[in-house]
Amino acid sequence: MGVKTKNEATLISILWAVDCMNAHHMNQVNFAVEASEMVGAVNRPKAWPSFSFQSNEILHSLEKMNALKFTQEPHNANRGATLIAQSSSNHPRLQSYVATGGPLWLEELFENERSAALVVQS
User: Do 62 and 84 fall within a single domain?
Assistant: First the structure.
């Protein structure tokens, strides 16, 4: 059958991310996704009636944990996640980066992202 639309792929990805965080007992998570329509559907479901199915599925999944935020983030704001996704597609791993604490080859990039985020928050 397969995934037919980008919105369907986005929904599956969000549900998978929530499920993974829950499986790792990470119950206080800020979720940041690119899809502004999904963020709108979760944060203001009545304003996004055409996304009610997606909204209900995500909200039901989030009930299992104490998600702190569900926000929109542009693609270029999370270069580390993009590089990990490309890496895992090109070079399958036997163990998840989440389980091992992240790839060492991205340590400097993540430190730069943390520093930039702290400057923005100040």
Answer: no
- 83, 57: one domain: no
CA distance 39 to 34: 8
Separation between Cα atoms, residue 87 and residue 80, nearest integer Å: 10
Same domain, 32 and 43: yes
Per-residue tens of pLDDT for the chain, all 122 residues: 688 999 999 999 999 999 988 888 888 888 888 899 999 999 999 999 999 999 999 999 998 887 678 899 887 777 777 777 777 667 666 666 666 666 777 888 878 877 777 666 66
Torsions phi, psi for 80 (to 5 deg): -60, -45
Give CA–CA dist 15/9, Å, rounded. Answer: 10
What six digits make up the tokens of 20? 């993974």
- pTM, rounded to two decimals: 0.71
